[in-house]
Fold these 4 entries.
Entry 1:
Amino acid sequence: MSYNEKLANRVREIIALTHDRVEEKKMFGGLCFMVNDKMCVGIEIERMMVRLDPAVYDAALEKDGCTPMDFTGKVMKGYVFVDAAVLNTNKKLDYWVQLALDFNKRAKPSKKKK
């Protein structure tokens, strides 16, 4: 599995400023940051997955480099991909990570496999 390590390090620094319950898991062909046992942000080679409030989903899709997450061939509302190329400043990256962290407080945890 490969992912954009530079982008992952930048995300790691942002999350570490405010959260200490963070787990990094290799999944989806990349690296996923689990905050409070909930999927939050994922890093691939050329894009970042962001889990956000479905209420802001349509507005998020209007931002540069943002596309629906269709990892399984089915669009998943509440998840988007953001091209790594548009995350070229700390301000832009922080915007997306904060969207994910804000929703993480209200997001339902994933169902645990038994």
Entry 2:
Amino acid sequence: MTFSIVIPTYNGADFIEQALLSALNQSRPADEIVISDDNSSDDTLAICQKYTDRIKIYRNLQGPSGFVNGWNHAIEKATGEYISILHQDDLLASTFLEEVEKALAVYPDVKHLFAPCNYIDGDGNNLQDLDYCTSEIKRYTGIEYVRAYQTIGRPHIHRCPGVVTHRDIFKVCQYREEAGHIADDDFFYRVGQYTDVVGILSPLASYRLHSKSETGHLKNMQLVQRLAHDYIFQVKQWMECDFMGKKEFEYFCSLAARFAFEEFYYGVKYKQCTWEKEGKDYMEYLKLQDIKILIKYRLFLLLTSFLGKNLLSKLLK
């Protein structure tokens, strides 16, 4: 079996060398390491070019194309049988590929594997303990994997660093731009329709939280808007699908209602008509689908109608 580690980059000079070295220093060496750059304007490529004898570098001169397209461009360049995406600010433990290869020896038919990741800050300090890491190698059915992803960990049992997917899966299940900010989650929710999944329950990667990350650089309202849209997308996608169980579907409904309400709330508070209308439209959509809207959300809508948006906006400030 062969492994490709692909690193999509865009203006990642702060952390790219650390990420790249973690890929280069694997105890079971990667068969190839691919840098797929989305037309960076900082020193990202200059840093990567220090290692041109050991890596492949591709540049999308039409970029930037967005983070999801960046992932897909990187996957397209990989030639290995198994592909692991490593974000430019994250890290892999030195034994990551070694442990993945051991797991595949036990479950050779499985085409998607993950290991949990530590959460670290910009300086590499650990931010939380992973109390569910038992060091076992565990096989999940597709729906068991969805359930684990939704309910274990803070917020999930794993994130994007530490995932390996067989290239055949990408022929039927890609990262989707329309899934928005949670395009990685969206991929993980869908992949179990095509393969069982193996979890190597040891922290073999590190997910970095910092102000310049895709999430970190967003202001709170921008993030709320994105997530309201993205969870409504998940509700629509899974509403008529037999794969997703009732509790798993309710997870999407709950988050869609929460972020739709928050968008409406902020719209009223700050007199932003676009936010207000979009959030209200999302909640109306959920109500039409007989999806539960919490009483406190409904009461706020009634209060808005009773007091008027202008008066309520003053009261909220």
Entry 3:
Amino acid sequence: MSNLRNENRGKVPNALPTGIAGLDHILMGGLPAERLYLVEGTPGAGKTTLALNFLLAGRDAVESGLYITLSETSEELVAAAASHGWSLDGIELYELVEEDGFASDNEQTLLHPSEVELGETVRGIISKVETANPSRVVLDSLSELRLLAQNPLRYRRQILALKHFFAKRNCTVLILDDRTAEPNDLQLHSIAHGVISLEHSASDFGSERRRLRVIKLRGLKYRGGYHDFTIEQGGLRVYPRLIASEHHRSFDASAVSTGLAELDALLGGGLTPGTNTLISGPAGVGKTTTAVRCLVSALERGEKAAYYLFDERIATLLTRCAALDMDLAHYIESGQLDLRQIDPAELSPGEFAGTVQSAVEEDGIRLIVIDSLNAYLHAMPSDNFLVLQMHELLSYLSQQGIVSLMILGQHGVTGELRSDVDISYLADTVMLLRYFEAEGTVRKSMAVIKTRTSDHERTIREFNIDSSGIKIGQPLTKFERILSGNPRYSNGNGNLLEGI
């Protein structure tokens, strides 16, 4: 028998799916079988939902499941499952403390509760597991055992006793804990084979944010760090932190047209797949219109595209585009264009990255517009996180061969302009749109100041937007300091667009 145990010790157990695709991705396949795991989090973090997901995945795999509850009733669990559209048929629910267990007749004062009730509770757990002989077990929750023990040593001994018992039963166990212990009490972490921590926090405005972290998974590799998740009808939806180095795809890097010959010339031949372009300028100068012109050109080539709108309402954008002879409605109806209104107060950064990844890998999107980074910034806890998130997201899109357009609004109209965040160093191409004044008229200019993939045109061109779309003029040769916002005009200029 001892030789058999030694042989089994060296074997890596099979990975059991948790029923949550994103979590299984983080765990590199799932939880190793026949181990004991701790799922910790404050009340409302999603522990029960995760545990039910785990048992339902076992039921789908024809594995028996047992949910032992010390705090909730069976009716509450059934109701919680029903809210997700689940049925718990085939999963055994066991209330360790019956309703009459709280009656005064069952109270005793001769012995300390930790000497009697704790032992009875642990024996009840063991007895039920021996009777049901399940493959997957959930114990909810440890806070009741901790209160009964009233002594750290006695509590640890009982948890160790349960761990050794489960180790002989060939079952996989999730133990839930609501963090009612001292903040620095990590004795459960040392006992469990793995620890999954769930967190949720509320900001001053907007919906609460949830994230999880695998603190420990003994002897196995996993994707560390924080990963955003949401609780939706159907259970937990986890958005694994995007790691660009894990995603590579071959693609044709030939430049594609923007739909405007003059703009292609400015860019040195057009937009190159696998690169991102930052379109920067003050409000109303034409950043969105320029991005939509590039978008329509891709749609006309038969490519699929996605437009993530943070600032405007969809109806406003569609009306404006239709007035400029760039109607997007039929592309949306055909499914070729995915136009989404994004509320930064409701969407976490991880969820947005997951949305983009799904659009690329599942929907075949080839061009993406983010309008604008200013609003996207407000979804982040700090500027540093925005830069790190954008770096990973842009690296991922680059390796997938996606043409990415990002719009960045600047504060001010003329003179020195200021941005909420500077990510120009992350961009492969930077396009500046500016206002300038000539002959008593407010005009607009366009210049490409950086392109990593081609020898771009270094001139500044005037452009105009009317009902026929964008019209780009010849290089402005008689102006200086246009980009500074304080242009100097000398000797006239025959290259100005007429009729403005």
Entry 4:
Amino acid sequence: MRKAIFPGSFDPITLGHEDIIKRGIPLFDEIVIAIGINAEKKYMFPLAERKRFIEETFKDEPKVSVITYEGLTIDLCKRINANFILRGLRNPADFEFEKAIAHTNRQLSKIETVFLLTAAKTSYISSSIVRDVLRNGGEYQMLVPKAVRIL
């Protein structure tokens, strides 16, 4: 069984995240969207709300589930028997950052990282941009899935 973890903070989930997950569905038997918990990080949205956004976005997709976790992603992979980590790449800086993490994860485990390039139409979107738009009262709706547009 090809089971992948798609880790992130998803604060909030964006159309870029949604695109990577949808494009990953045919590649894997199951995708577990794993919301990481970092006590040192300040989030705009509470964990329960971030989880609800994702669950609502993928409510009709049986191959997608959502969990929360703390600690190393590879430890989560081992715990739930996932053999892949799915990651999206927007630009060369993402690649360099993600490459280092993928090499480290591969060194520490047998977990493979699968990279998908973001679609051109969503490559500029990041959660931090969405949060900035929201903080400043801007039109954010075209950057996020419908579940997040109810704010």
